Amino acid sequence: MLIAIPLLLLPVVLYNIVVLFGASGNIGMAQADALLRDPIFSIPMASGAQWNIGSGDLILFLGLILLFFELIKSTSSQKVAIVNHALSMILFIVVLVEFLLIRGFATSTFFLIVVMILLDVLAGFIVTIIASRKDFDLGN
User: Fold this and answer.
1) pLDDT, tens digit, 9 for 90 and up, residues 38-66
2) Which pTM was predicted?
3) 63 CB contacts (<8 Å, ≥6 apart)?
């Protein structure tokens, strides 16, 4: 049953931890952006430039990897996939509400997480509809 839990829940939880617990008190959008963009480490590039990587970058990187696995999961036709689609839709509604209503969540990083979850929801439903239509066509 753990396979039904959307993998994209992990970047959402990490973002919530960074933004809600990363600063004391009422965090504003500017402080949330600074928390996400402040470099955790730097990688020297061949050009001589420094590539600064912040917590927001790492969360987005993890989210993209998990989105790939969610898209692969959406191609299965198991009964658990329907539960996964429903939980992904609930997750999308939660993150959309956070994005629109909670200070500190109106950042580009969180917007991209919301878009990844929306793509997961759309892909899940589209793949399910196409698979169902093929099954229906074969039945005739």
Assistant:
1) 889 999 999 999 999 998 999 999 999 99
2) 0.84
3) 8, 11, 112, 113, 116
